[in-house]
Every structure is written in C-alpha cells, then in structure tokens.
Amino acid sequence: MCRDNIYTEWVILKMTMIFILNLCYYKLMILIVGLGNKGEEYKNSRHNTGFIVLDNILGKVDWNESSKANALYYKDSIKKKEVEYLKPLTFMNNSGVSVLSEQIKLKVKSQNIIVIHDDMDLPIGTYRISFNRSSGGHRGVESIIKKIKSQEFIRIRIGVSPTTPSGKLRKPKGEEAILKFLLGKFKEDELKEIKKVSKKIAEIIEMIVLESKEKAMSTFN
C-alpha cells in the first residue's frame, strides 16, 4: 500500500515537472499566419486572401523580412498579449517551411497558431473557424500540417466563391479551372466584401488571444 502511494506521488511529481518545463519552453505568444503567394502578379488574387486580410487588419505597417523563415513578419500586441503576424514568401505549396521556422524561433505551440486562408467551399463574404481539421485539399494548409507534424492549429477560412441569385455556390470544376479561378483577381465589389469580413476576423483574433478559441468558435461560427 505504502509502495503504491509512493509510486502515485512520483507519477504526479513527474507530470507536474513536465507541465512546468513545457510552460518554460513554450511562449504564450500567438502566431497569426496569412497565406498567399509573393509577387505583384498575385496581388488581390483569391489565393492571396490571407495576405489581403492581414493587410486590411494592420493597415500600412513596416513588415520585417526573415531570410531564415523566408517570410515577412510583424510583431504587435493585443491588449498587452504578444502576437506576431506572418506572411510566408515561399509560395503557397511550401508555406509550412516558413511557419515551422517561425514556430521554432518563437517557441509557439501549434495550438497557438492561427492560419487565415481562402476557401472555395464558402461563399464570398463569409468565414468559418475550425481547429484540428484536415487540409481539405488546401495546399498551403497541407504544407503546414506536414512541416509542423500537427493539424492542431486554428484555421480561419475565408469564402471566395461567388453565388447564384438563389444562393448556390458557383465553384469551378476540374484542376485547371480551379487553379485559374484561385489565381484570378477579385473584382472591386468582392474586395469590398473581403474588407468587411476582415473587420470580423480582427474581432475573432482578439477573442482567441484574450479569451479562447472555443469562445470565438461558439460566438462567430
């Protein structure tokens, strides 16, 4: 009986030490990633929705460039809570390279990473928050999952597909048509919709940072 108690106390002590070590290693900073492709030819394209949303939220700021992460980053705070915004410059399919590099540098848990990206399965002007989900075929998200070896991060999916007058999604079919659509530019009225959505995304990010992802999902989804 005495031996069992000693073992139980040892297990509790060990788990406590692991918890403390994790707290010491991992920072409470939130890493906010907007996905897109670098280059003027991709500016305002549907696939650059992540970049566009970050620019709408932050306005004109002085981005820093990290050659190691191959990304642009901007450090900020939300009511004294540290955050870093990140734009990978690796092109979409290798976004995970930048995210992993910055995750290691900042010592951020995957659960404290927020990824903002386009989603063809949602109508333009809408959004959805998800956590611990598969890539859904999005190459940028797929790259992140592979590199950080986890899908336990927050995703804010931004709708980019037009709808019919009855509200049905008008999605392209076939790989070539999909690629052309994603790399195509938003129309002016669509960019206005993205700008409106960006205000909501800023509110979502603030709630995640100050409260929790669960509160944000129940409030905004």
Q: Kindly estimate the percentage of residues that lie in beta strands according to DSSP.
A: 15-25%
CATH secondary-structure class: Alpha Beta
Radius of gyration: 20 Å
How far apart, in Å, are the first and last alpha carbons? 51 Å
CA-based shape = globular
Q: Let me know the average pLDDT.
A: 90
| Helix and strand element order | HEHEEEHEEHEHHH
Low-confidence stretches: none
Structure in words:
The relative contact order is 0.16. This protein is globular. It has seven helices and seven strands. The protein has helices at residues 2-25, 49-58, 95-106, 139-148, 175-183, 188-210, 213-220, and strands at 30-34, 64-66, 71-78, 81-88, 113-123, 127-131, 154-161. The protein is α/β, with parallel strands linked by helices and 221 residues long. It has a seven-stranded mixed beta sheet, sandwiched between helices. It has one domain (27-220): 3-Layer(aba) Sandwich (Rossmann fold).
Secondary structure elements and pairings:
Elements: H1 2-25, E1 30-34, H2 49-58, E2 64-66, E3 71-78, E4 81-88, H3 95-106, E5 113-123, E6 127-131, H4 139-148, E7 154-161, H5 175-183, H6 188-210, H7 213-220
Parallel strand pairs: 1-4, 1-5, 5-7
Antiparallel strand pairs: 2-3, 3-4, 6-7
Helix pairs in contact: 2-6, 3-4, 6-7
Main attributes of the structure:
221 residues, Rossmann fold, alpha/beta, 7 helices, 22% strand, single chain, seven-stranded mixed sheet
Can you give me a brief rundown of this structure?
This protein is of the alpha/beta class.
